[in-house]
Fold:
Amino acid sequence: LGAAAFIRKPFDFNFLTGKIKEFTGKKTVIAVEDNPETRKLIEVRLGREGYDVSCVSGEDELFSLLPEKKPDIILMDVVLPGSDGLGIVRRLKAMDEYSDIPVIAFSGYVGDELSGKDIAGADSYIGGKFTVDSLLEEVRNRIN
Structure:
């Protein structure tokens, strides 16, 4: 019938997301950040660069979204109210279905003393006075 793909219902959201990525070529990013202004900056800046960006404010939202939208990379704020960003990274890396997703940990509150160290299994860390551009550069290095 001219369809590019066929998926039977009920479908697996990870499979569907993979098919969409195949056709659009967009890389998917999930950012976990509690500050609404920073979330918006990340969403707009990475969106302009062609990434499909979803921003969540905490752990519960992240784990609700993951089964539907397995990302190519996760950006994780280290300091979250009621949660430990590094604890979330450890949890992700311990789960078979998500352990292969690169995680970039970042914080404007925690200094550079964590740079270069094993940050709970995160693939990289940006500390101190990070910028959205520094996050973008790290995303490009990891998934493009």
Q: What stands out?
A: The beta strands are 28-32, 52-56, 73-77, 79-80, 83-84, 103-106, 124-126.
